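sorry for the late reply, my laptop died twice this morning and i had to redo everyting from scratch. anyway the thing you sent over, i finally got around to it. pasting the sequence first so we're on the same page, its 173 residues, then the predicted structure underneath. double check i copied it right bc i was rushing
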Amino acid sequence: MSSKGLKLLTLPLVIPVVSLGILTACAKDNIKAVTANGSSPSKPNVILDIKSQAGICPKTVGLWTISLVSEGGGEYTVVADTRPIANPARLVASSERFVEYEAILRESYASCIGSASSQEFRFYNFQFRNGKVYFRVDLPAIVNESVNGTPDVGITYKELAASRPYVRWKATE
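ok and here's the structure:
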């Protein structure tokens, strides 16, 4: 079997195992495991500051992110940690290149109007308004950045994991 064939066979096996690890971490609050970079899988590995415009807002919101990059593209997984600040999320809109979830904010944050995003993770953003938090994965922003033309970019999986938004997407040249 060629090296390329082995890579293609390995990727579908690795992604579900890694995803299962994230789901397990999301579902259990008492996990004590530590990842290779020293962070705990029970806590998000990306923390975004919430820019409050009005009302009482949480200070931060977290994401678990995993990138499996290979020659010619990659698979990316993100889980939004909305559970500490909101009730269970639900999928409200999606297409091949975007997905949006909403969750009713906990009573203490119901007045929050604000947003959270970062330049590094610009395709993931949170909006806080009308007593809800909206989490959106929007891939069109990265399509125009390809040097060699438009890559194949799309959402391959969207679901809830322990009542949290879970999205997997791909980008290949």
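The longest strand covers residues 60-70.
thats about all i looked at so far, will dig more tmrw
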